[in-house]
Amino acid sequence: MRPSPLCLVRVLPRSEVTNALSKLKPLPEPKRSDVPKLNIFQMLQKRKEAMGESYPPNLRIELALSKHDFRGVPLETKRQLREMIKEK
Questions:
Q1: What is the top-level taxon of the source organism (predicted)?
Q2: What is the dihedral of CA 10, 11, 13, 17, to 10 degrees?
Q3: pLDDT of the residue at 50
């Protein structure tokens, strides 16, 4: 059996509503579009430069290659490059 809409409605006293409104947090400031946003690669590069020699040598930071990077390259050369890029 489903409850009727009248059972689901609850009338609140005005004092409870005003108290609830006073507890609301203010909206966050909107993000500025004129400030350049760093991507993950740039953030990691900055961290690596800041840490200097203490940066772990086993962490590599490389940009991902896409199809557009291989545009104009002969097909056989593309295959060889893809094989070299793949991690084993």
A1: Eukaryota
A2: 70
A3: 93
